[in-house]
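S1.2 Input.
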Amino acid sequence: MAHDHAPTAAELAREAARSTFPHHGLEGLLTRVRELPGEERRRLAEALAERYLHGTETEPARSGLLVLMARVGRGLDGLPLAAQRAAYVEGFSLSHCLWGAEGRELLCRAETDEGRPLSAPVIATLRRSALVLGHDTGLVSFAKGFTEPVLNVGEEWAEAALEDGRWRGLLAHAVTARSARPSAAWERTARTLVDGLGAEAVRTAVLGWLALVGRPRTFALRRETHEPDVNASFDPYNANALRGLTWLLALLPPHPATARALGTLVETSLRKAAGLGPRAPKVANAAVGALARTDGEAALAELARLGTRVTYKGTRKLVDAALEARSAALGLSREEIEELAVPGYGLTGTGTAAFPLGEATALLEVRGSRAVLRWRNAAGRQVTTVPAAVRRDHAEALKDLRGLAKDVDTTLSAQAERLDRMFLARRGWTYDRWRAHYLDHPLVGTLARRLIWTVDGTAVAFAEGALRTLAGTPLTGGGTVGLWHPAGREPAEVVAWREWLERHGVTQPFKQAHREVYLLTDAERRTKRYSNRFAAHILRQHQFHSLAAVRGWNDSLRLCVDSSAPPAVRELPQWGLRAEFWVEGDGHEYGTDTNDAGTYLRLRTDQVRFYPADAPQNRASTYGGGYTMWPHLGRRVRPLRLDRIPELVLSEVLRDVDLFVGVAGVGNDPTWSDGGPAGRFRTYWHSCAFGELGQSAETRRALLERLVPRLAIADRCTVEGRFLHVRGDLRTYKIHLGSGNVLMSPNDQYLCIVPGGTDTADGAAPDYLPFEGDRTLAVVLSKAVLLAHDTAITDPAIAGQIRR
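S1.3 Output.
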């Protein structure tokens, strides 16, 4: 090539300014530049520097000139604009990834070639970019050359780990955990490192770091327009280290605190970030793997708890596989393993324990679904705060005790969810086994003693130290025990049990005696093979997806792409059935009806159907349209008649769907009064927010009729039709019993109150509630107390609407 045809600085700058990715014209010029002798390239770099200093380019173009200069002067030392290049490189510290990395990488190389070290945040950006842009081998090899700091800065746990140089070797080894499972060689090195540092010291340090995982970044990164919420995600370089740390914990002697930390890490890693989904599934999977390899009751209990909480499919499969492996090893069923996995947590009675700490005593007591710590001082008197001597002399034991109380809380929640899903499991026990694992279990007993059971068909509950029938007759033995359900029971029996609970002051951990029973409607008798009872609702897809998983349904997120998906499905193997809830994505406008990843934000609901368990799968286009069965070996199966579905199965499935609509539906969201995008859901929202009551809301209304007279504001409240009417000093209000939304006089003006605002209504609930878990009931009661004292409301958003 003749050198007099070499590109000029002006040509390069002009082509860079007008080029679009992949910069074909610019790359052609740079190919010619790379064939020039070094001195000519240096003169060209100097010309670009002159244009940077004295040209008329915009600021983004001037930055591009620095990158161009690095590409032109690649391999040359003493390039101009050292200060400007250093400042530009330091700006990379706030990027998650260096998109279009080649020129920026060369600028970084030039800094190191000229003896100027890169800052830790810039090194972190290079490492992340190497992982995200792994095909760029030059960047990958360059990033690998940085061994300090051993972790990326920017995450609190990582910066805490970097503070003590003792752990450098351990952390450096953890960072090499780039595969799904540790190799034998990786574990040999890990064991050597642990032996040198001490197993207990390693456990204490690692658990301290893991406790900080998921906290906000120590400095925020810039979010590019095409990127998800990078500040909510895990640093991918540090995520490898977290995976390695979980592998290390699996090599240490079992400890309850280790199991607790690994379980928390699973849930923290699966917490969703906008546009990203679960933040770090590979870290969650590694933590599950570590639990699966850890012996002892605590690890098994944590796996069983995660089995009721984890909804992310990949991780859920690992949890299920770990529990199935334990089941096979012990020769027990999965259900039996879940029962054995519930620890007693040192409770010496049903829900109580005492722990001496010096001369003081900690008293742990399960109250409802919470563990409460109380204290007795050296004189034997109960005190409200932790004694000073305990804080001073028993700090580590106090920390463990608080951790124990947290474990009790999380396990209680998981066990309540497991029991609530057991109605469809057709689960039965021998009397002695049931007493051991339920009624007399130190932890599960606090739930079991608040439920109604059947012993050889006779309904019983626990009161005054014994199992008793509805008539109060003690029962001391029997054959087969099951969980009582109101479906199929006489209405008089159901009412009698509700009154029994009230008389004995029993608050059930979930709705049982007050559980809604969904009977066939006339419309469903006419349609025969499907139910439209919950059709034509609008659900928030991600909330529905999570809730469906918790309730045991299999659901696929629907994307606005040319594909197909099955309906939401609940498998009912004990009944030989499969329930389907038909849904489809709403709308097709990206950014309005979808998130940045193209996932539908909302779904429209349709039919509920039942099929034999082995029937072929229905599918529908993700763009909408009817479901059709994809036949297996040419066989097509009609949906089953609803009047042939067992009453309990029909009721529980429809109850789930009612829950999905009630919780995930936009109609119950007070912020949707404007009708959402372009107001197109305004009519739908109003019909849900103030319309006819569903079955769960009817149950709520019946309960409120009994509860309202016990409220401190009883003289200001009446239940009428669909509303709880509340008389304030400024206005009167109507709180809808289905949605919790509020209308106020005059003319039924809408009053928007978003739960969780600055005003609270302490003491909203009466002294006694017959069950836990009805969030809408809590919202209705809280709003009632707030509005009964409307002159005391200080939240300007609420007070402004009332006084307008």
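S1.4 Remarks. Residues 19-24 have pLDDT under 50 and may be disordered.
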